[in-house]
Amino acid sequence: MEASEPKIEDCAVPVTSTIRALEKEIAHPIVYQLVRVDGDGRLVPATQDEIMVVEDLLEDDKCESKLVPDTRQISESCITEGYLLERNSFQVTEEKSNVLVDPVPDLGKIDAPEKVAVHGLAPLSELSNVDQSVRTDVCSHSQDAPNEDAPNEDTPNEDAPSTSASGSSWKPDFSKLEGKICLDDLPVKELQETFKATFGRETSVKDKQWLKRRITMGLTNSCDFSCTTFIIRDNVVMKKGEEQICHRVKSRISADSEDGVANSNFRGSLSDHDNRIKDDSDLSGADVCSSAFESCNVTKDLNTEQITAKRARKPTKRYIEELSEIESRETSEKLALPDKISRYQFACPETHIRPAKNVRSNVRPLVTRQDSLGGSGVQIPFVSRIRRSRPRENFMPLLKLQPSGMDLATRQVRSAFDISGPQEDDKRNNDLIKTSSSPGWTQQPLIPACEKDEHYSGMKIVELENDIEVNDCSEDNSDDNVVTVPTQKGGMRRKHHRPWTINEVVKLVEGVARYGAGRWSEIKRHAFSSCPYRTSVDLKDKWRNLLKASFVQLPAEKGILNSRKQASVPIPAPILSRVRELADMQGQIPPVISACKSSGHSSSDRSVHEARSGFL
DNA sequence: GTTAGGG
DNA sequence: CCCTAAC
Q1: Which of A100, A260, A399, A487 could form a disulfide with A425 if both were Cys (CB 3.0 to 4.6 A apart)?
Q2: How many domains are contained in chain A?
Q3: Domain for residue A10, yes or no?
Q4: Nucleotide with the nearest C1' to A393 CA
């Protein structure tokens, strides 16, 4: 998708690693450097113009954040740690902590480097080694940091604004973290409190799972927290000393165990992606944190040794859809996406699906994804459950075939009598069948009077048969011209839905008898060479349906045809019997039904292939 | 390209 | 009939 686009930089994913001195008003400005990842992976320092562009973008972004109360929620989905900034003293404002990546370069301005406000976090494994004394310097979330020295633990931010995005002086309050806290044990209210302490804003979310995930993730992603002596394991916040096996635990963020709801869903829908599971033990912080970047080919400098297990199989569309459903369900609780956000999505052009690892961690780096399906290559916010198949290609012929307001049945009836019906190109045989379902008629099905089947001849045939019947048989013998001659429309019209005629059914059944079920190509070649509109898949499908119908109908095997008042073509019972017989021979009989078969056996041996089937 | 199966 | 995974 991406690669197919004529791009200048050969799929380079422009990523900024650092931006320099953009925040003049900040006490301790972040020192970034703006670079662009070149096609070969080199980091190209940004030009002055590019920096200007980014500055503007950041300005916009800041304004935007003020308008959007809960930008952080999005950013959390986008945040990707894994960057160890060069300086050990950096300041991250709320706005700046949002990772805002526009992964799809506007072709019009490819030279402009993509704006990336890097989350000021090193991998947790490293940050946790940071001396606490530098904590406030390292991780203050406030712009002016008035009380950066003493996060007041007695008054846990009761006056903190509900939306901290606009440069509030909120600081995380970890006073609650004295001792162990098991998030699982907390009631919703407590969780909400903890949420507030963690994020500095109120939440009305009652979903415990969601709260726990948010808190865990928030703490894990928080510099402040990681600078403490606490770690998180399995929804339990505990002192580092108490944690024995903390090595990989601290990286697991909130992994499966806590992620009850969502993860179980993932499990269900992902059961075929086995390697997911096996990755379980391999996960490390760097792996988790960098996985998103990894997908973006930015991992060159980052923990590349972790990048090993790749998913072997591409996920199915269904997987993507279900994933989207889960995500949308989660995000729907939070906020409506501002338009701006969509421009800042973090999505990896290389992968329209996220690696499974990302799913498992609660970092949700992809708000949107590349949708290569349907060949559009367009980036869409979510893969909603839209119609999967491509739109009907040639419905114009269909419209032509069904002119005016005449409904199908009427048209068919008319054509049955009126030779000069509008659809002369249609085989009248088709119309014969359809007639049986027409309103005015008794449900007498019209059986093709095939010479070989006396059974059919025994059936009562309605008046109009004689005419049509001939046609039907003619089709049976040499319908090629009729079928193959589509119409004056040019090219063969491939109707998207052409009801199966009895004749075709018979041919199919005979074909199955002759070549065996499953040899659809063979059957198509021989028996349906004159029916180009029946593909082998069609034959298979029809056979499947016949099979089903036959066993449904068999219990009440009247000699009559199914006189159900259905619009579909009723299949004569004898044919169904034969279907069943063939199915029996070919071992296609459902075990349940196989017991009660063999009763109508005799009635079905009328066809030419009866002898064959007999000795078979 | 074909087959099997789900939708 | 469409779509897709597997073969």
Answers
A1: A487
A2: 2
A3: no
A4: C2
